[in-house]
Amino acid sequence: MAATHETTTHRIGPPRVAINHVTGSLHDEEAAKGLGFRGTAVGGTTHMDVFAPLLVETYGAEWFERGALSVMFLNVIVSGEAVQAVVERPATPAAQVGVLARRADDHAILAGAGTASLRDHSRSALATRGLRLCDESQLRMLKGVKPGQSLGQLTASVERETQDALLASGAINEPLDWYRGASPWGGPIACVSQSAILMLDLVNPENQRRIAPDIGESFGMFGAIELAYERGPVFLDRPYTIEGTVVGVGHSPQTEYLWWDATARDERGETAVRMRQQLRFLKASSPLYPELSAP
Fold this sequence. Notes:
alpha+beta, Thiol Ester Dehydrase, Chain A, 12 strands, globular
C-alpha cells in the first residue's frame, strides 16, 4: 500500500487508476459517448475501495466490523483516470468524518463525497439526506414500483477467485493486504466494493425488468451507496442470504431513480452488512422519453 499523505486535518490517499471491468450500458464507450459522457464510465463501487486504507488508519480494523461509508456519486470518472481519497481526521476517536474522492489531476472534480463513521451511523450522509421521493404515477420507467416492495431473496458469496482476478487486473484499485492474505480475522476478507456487489445482484438488469416491467433496456448508473458493517467483515467463499426492499422512487430532469435497502445475513442469520443505494435510470436512454432521446 502506498504511503498516505497526512495534514493536521486530513488523510490523503495516493492516486489510484480507476478501471472499468463491466460491459454494457454506460460501461460501453460508444453508448456512453452517445449519451454525452466523455467515455467509458467507471462504476461508483470502484471508488469506494480507495477509502479503505484511510478508514483503517482512522478507526482501526474495527471499521471492517462496525464501520460505514456513505457516499453520493457526483461526477462520472472515465476508465483510465486516477482518483484519490481524502478523509477528515476525527475530532474524537470514533467520531463521524467527511470524505471525498477526487480526480487526482483536477481536485475540483469530485467522483463522490459523503461521510464515514464507526458504530453510530445515524447522522451519515444518506441518513440525513432528503430522498426527494414522488408518487410512482409521475414516472414512466419506474411506474408501479412502490415503497416496501420486496426485491426478493438470493444466496450469494464473494468468491476468492473472482476477487483475486479483480486485484490482478487493477479493477480493485486499492489492493489492501487483507484482501489476499492474513487479516485480523484470519484469512482474506472481501474488499469494500465486493461487499457492496454481493447485494447488487438483486437489481441486475434481468431483475430490474421484473421489478419495473416498463424499464426496458434503459441505462442505469449509481447515484449513491451507503455500506454499513454490523457484524463484519464479509468473508470470501462464504454464503450470505441477501434480501432487499424498495425505499421509494423519484425523478430529476435527467433521471428516474430507485432508493432501496439490502441486507446480507451470514449462516447464523446475523446481519453482516447492510446497504442503501440510489440507482438512477437515464431518461434519454429510454424510448419512454422520446423527447430526450439522443440523436
